[in-house]
Predict the 3D structure of the following.
Amino acid sequence: MATTFILNGRSATLDADPAMPLLWALREVAGLHGTKFGCGMALCGACTVHLDGKATRSCVTPLSSVADRKVTTIEGLQSKQAKAVQAAWIELQVPQCGYCQSGQIMSATALLEITSAPTDADIDAAMSGNICRCATYSRIRAAIHTAARGLKS
Amino acid sequence: MALTIGFEWIGSTRRAAAVASPASGAPFAPNAFLRIGADNSVTVIAKHLEMGQGAYTGIATIVAEELDADWAQVRVESAPADAKRYANLVFGTLQGTGGSSAMANSWNQLREAGAKARAMLLTAAASDWHVAASELTVSKGVVSHAASNRTANFGSLVKTAATLPVPDQVTLKDPKDFKLIGHKAARVDAAAKSDGTAQFTLDVVLPGMLVALLKRPPQFGATVRSFDATAAGAVPGVVKVLQVPRGVAVVAKSFWAAKQGRDALRIDWDNSKAEKRSSADLMEEYRRLADQPSLPARKDGDAERALRDATQKVTASFEFPYLAHAPMEPLDAVVKLSANSCEIWAGDQFQTVDQMNAARTAGLDPQQVSIHTLYAGGSFGRRANLGSDYIVEAVSIAKAYGADGTPIKLQWTREDDIHGGLYRPMYFHKLEAGLNAQGQLTAWRHVIVGQSIMADTMFAAMIKDGIDGTSVEGAANIAYAIPNIAVNLVTTKTGVPVLWWRVVGSSHTTFAVEAFIDEVAHAAGEDGFAYRRRLLEHHPRLKGVLELAAEKAGWSSGPLPAGRGRGIAVAEAFKTYVAQVAEVSVDKDGHVTVDRVVCAVDCGTAINPDIIAAQMEGGIGFGLGAVRFGAITMKDGRIEQDNFNSYRVLRMNEMPKVEVYIMPSAEAPTGVGEPGVAPVGPAVANAIFAATGRRMHVLPFPKTGDA
């Protein structure tokens, strides 16, 4: 059975079990490895993608549910918010082990695409679903503020 | 064709790290740690695992500094498993990463490697240009002869340099000339970790590769009596169902198929030899054992007598749970096993031990086992275990599959990780202090009860006189000037496998010591900072960080408003000295917010101040989550936690503001991966006392009531 959707701006048809989580369809069928597996229960955020522009945990999203919708992964980020986030991530040297960072960047980008000047409370709300065991949280927060400031100017 | 091969394999969506150079000739590789290509690439070969702590960047910085390379041209690749060339000099003859030793053991070794290569490049240029080497300068990967206005980049000198002998001696740089060390050199892996291209074991794809999930026993020590694979084998994509020593493996064409196959397995477990107790019962037993005979880990003077003679006595007990490491990347390994070779891909923390265990499992010699060490998505010690559990599992599955060269990726799920053991042990601590009429400490008695990490492992020989050093470090070596000190140990045995967890012994001992000395200071009517400072008069480095943290936190600026408090703690771990001051707010319902942690660290020469700060920040977050929320509990032998819902870890909204101050030092560098974890727990506990008058004796303490 095949599911057709827009993946990173291009039409994609993935032939897989419609009940397969989008995470594994992306990783093992589409061959995109930037989205990671951390918990399988939408508790850690490592699998975050954008579904129709909204931050979504792909590990609990069945492949069939994204039919005809827009999916963006870390590999497909194009917006100015995404570029600002990624530039801030490097400027502030955010990543340590790096495993959670795709998910962090996806959540941070989605936040900035909706809220151009997020407060610390906005950041808490948008980002607390993304666990970082290396606890790079201070730098993630600072990088989001840096990206927001850069976008304003 | 000069070819530098990186640690990334070739895959369809990968950026190949293998750079084929158009120039001809072999690269210049004067030692095991460095290779310079005719294409002017500088590749540093890192013997340590990059698991977030910045080892690749630190290693590359040391080499690039002495080499005078351009930081932008430096790449890092992981070393093969070869203890002869890549042993951790702190471990001795084993290759591996741990004990925050990467920089400490690499410092002289890598400085020399870079400096000798630089000397040879100068000799090569001098030879090519027919000038004296003393007339040449090197900067950012370019050798210059000012007098004749000639320059040559490293790549152009490779051909000549490769013909030269490696000098026996070399002069290292004067630290005042450092351009990279002590400055902010950008992490070599930050970009790839910010765009999804950094590769982990999870991402390995090889032709014909299958994925395996392993069903492990629900109680430690249980074994498979029988199993029914009918339903599992019927799942589309499942290729084989195999019994291996650890349990039953489902091998399939994809993770999803393997997972569904494993979920459909029916296994009858023999639990006759399994651990069936509950952690609450174990702690009850530990409390009792604290008053039973114990073995001495430290004996200064006569603590028992001094306690009897004391004017005032203070006593407290502390309870610590099992803790899971729970790195973000669940354990995984890819094994390609055939008759004569075992090729492994993993975020490998313990190469030599893993080689030995893999060889034994495969029926091969260790030299037939090769390991591609990739980035690890965190470890905190989990991937370095003496039984190489996840590696042995993967090899045993490949062996049961037929050892026919089919690559098999063993993937752990989060539930596997939380249930899988090799936890930080649970401990019970009992402390007693005696004070004289002036409130000075005359006696200190500390009993620790818990499992030995090294017993029944290949490191068991390190247990001397019944004392496993990892159970008592941070307690037996306290630097406080107390005339009578007794630190004793009762080692217990349970069926729960245990392991070192970030900062090891100090993860519990520092809490007990620093929370208890705070109680002692209070009983003496004294300020916790002043009390400690007097007892550390003779220890300038500990005293130094204590004073720096207190100063930067405004310790003496008077008490905080009601409902808020400050607490302090100081510790040495792996020869690095750290002090932290925590500020907390506690609301009327007992909810604690940790507002701020001020951290002072002395790690000798600061190779990369930004990475040091990041490791302190990260260690604080890691340690804080553990003392506030972390607990693995066992009921009738079954682990009660499953995933991040029930094994709670620190999240963004719970992270305090952190300030890090690095003590200037010219001493040799020591590590920063772990020490930041130790003081945060007691600093927060002491802050909670300042705010509420309540002491935290049972961990974790999500609220201010004793659990």
Observations:
- Chain A has two domains: 2-76, 80-152.
- The radius of gyration of chain A is 15 Å.
- The beta strands of chain A are 2-7, 10-15, 48-51, 54-57, 70-72.
